[in-house]
Amino acid sequence: MGRPVLVAFAVVLFVTPTARTQGNGIDLKGLLDTYYQGRYDEAVAKAAAIPDLGPFRLRFVQDSPVWVNADPARSEARSAAAAAFLLEVTAARLESDWGRFSDLIEWTCVQLRTTAAPTEFERSWHAASHALAGRARAREWLLGEFPLLPHQKAPEQPRTVPRWVQRMEATQPKPPAHLTHALERFPDDPHFQLSRVVAWTWGRDGEPMRNVRVRDDDDQRRPSRAPQLEAIVTLEPLTAVPDVAAEAWIRLGMVRFTAGDFAAALRAFEAAQPIATETSMKYLAYFNAARALERLQRVDNAVRAYQQALEIVPDAESATVALTSLQFMRDDRDVAVSAINRVFNRKPGPAETATSRGYGSFLRWDALKTAMRAALKRDKS
Amino acid sequence: MTRGRGSFLVAALLAFAAIEMPRLDAKQAVFRARTESVAISASVKRGNAPVANLTANDFRLTDNGVPQSVEAVTIESVPLDVTLFMDTSGSTAGALDRMKSNVITIAKMLRPDDQFRLMTIGLSVDTPVPWQRAGSPISLDMKAVPGISLVYDALFVALTHTPATGRRHLIVAMTDGEDCGSLLDGARVLDASGRSEAVLHWIYVSNQGDFDQLSIPAWCTPTDAREVDFVAQSAARTGGDSHRSRFGDAAVRTFAQILDEFRQSYVLRYSAQGVKSSGWHTVAVQVPAQQALTIKARSGYFGAP
Prior knowledge:
The structure holds two protein chains of two kinds. Chain A is built from 20 helices and no strands. By secondary structure, chain A is mainly α. Chain A has a domain of 116 residues. The N terminus of chain A is likely disordered. Chain B is α/β, with parallel strands linked by helices. Chain B has two domains: 81 residues; 183 residues, von Willebrand factor, type A domain (Rossmann fold, 3-Layer(aba) Sandwich), CATH 3.40.50.410. Chain B is 24% helix and 28% strand. Chain B contains seven helices and 15 strands. Chain B has a six-stranded mixed sheet with strand order 8-7-6-9-10-11, sandwiched between helices. In chain B, strands 1, 2, 5, 12 and 14 form a five-stranded antiparallel sheet that branches. A four-stranded antiparallel sheet of chain B has the order 4-3-13-15, with no helix packed on it. In chain B, helix 3 runs parallel beside helix 4 and helix 4 packs parallel to helix 6. Chain B is globular. The two termini of chain B are 14 Å apart. The relative contact order of chain B is 0.23. Chains A and B meet through helix 6, helix 18 and helix 19 of A and strand 7, strand 8, helix 3, helix 4 and helix 5 of B.
């Protein structure tokens, strides 16, 4: 029995006991019809409002294949619509329910990969799914338990593991390594290559973790962060690929920053500044440069770089906090207080770019969702 | 550390005027902390009971070790700007329903001439209830955002608020104090607390509800709170204190105690004499003639460069 079949079987087993008797109240086919007709927000809002996701999960596994095959001539487009619908509902419930959707996403991935040739919709769907997994920092879900970067070699000697441990491990569900499926289907896609190395750094970096103690709980000096520096080997070639060069420079700078090499970090952020075209990347290039300049004690330059970041995204909260904290310390308080009052005395806005920077491509979720919808429309027509 | 705008009478008149026009906007917010005159908040208690009716002569105040002549002692009945900061990150989100209930109850404790705002945290520092006059209807949109906890950034934003002349700013932070993902570090918050007019009280609350394992996981391990407790130090520096409580009725009771104590506290105003203006000024407050008092006062301030 192949892994895809096992995944599907596991999903059905997992959802059935909790929802067997509760799923009848949800009109999943109706929601999919609504979404397929292009009323995306309406369908997603209705699904996201379902209080108990157990029945929804059951209906999705049982009804979506039936709905897809109800029109065999358009089954591929309908399969794409069901997959996109699932991602959008996941996004709507992401903070509270990531773990209730991640297995369904992988189950859907299995369905999409049954087509012989990868489609542009599949590419956009994968990119969107990686963004959501980024918010969850789901490294194992994306890459598996012991991921290796392309230049890294697997250990030559197999681990010597007692037989009973091997048996126990064999019974444990393995993470799906979702991103590797995208790389198998689109091996040359630089965005996926970048997503892989970014996800690889999670758990190895200090971003956006702050103030890590030099010594651990046992008063032992923490090990250096050399393992994270290996990401640079993968990131550097990507700085030469126009599609991802700006972000690769920024990610590279973040690795350098985390390792404490602020001068190298600054050079990387400055390299990103003239080539970044996306607003979020332009902002991050200046914002992160300002942070590096602060650490280099070049405060006047840091202030200027924060101001440049705020010219790109006026009233961005991250640059406002960082800049005003400098102004506050330098006793330039009237300016600082005025900016704080303007930016923070208002109801919550959308997610903030810089505080999202530790979540991979999640910071461009809106754009990825738009691209996915566009690909869906093209496939349908 | 507030610029003296005139006599106490003038301050009282301004305070009265503020009752009529409590709405604060950026134009009204004039920061007055860097000037030659200083105002130090101080609460004086015997046991758990605030000590009332103290006069200027009862206090001994030193600025960098130099005794100062306290010009006015005000028993504060002036209007308040109250910032309530609730930590809606994953570590406390299990108590979201009780938090919402607490906000409503706490807002009702304020006087009509007070102002109130609610700050929370998600992927950014949020202000679900911007500054509004106490008693106004509250429209609450609070949600938990796990995996990130911008405690330091939120405290910095709260500390920078400058009340209009004749008003005082009280910050009550309900959080476990564990920061994750802030742009600022704890040292920067501690620095800001020495430049702010606010009095910060920290009510330590931990997650009292069930954390949903299927939500976004918490991946960030904050560690500095165990080594340098920046939140507690910041509170102490402003003349506030640290408390422990639980969301629900207990937190409301703790807030009520803080509010009551704050309303009965003193402001000691003086023009610093015999000390250099710039740099950190350590301030010590005593009531020499009375024994067994607990005095919580701002521990110092940064002078103008």
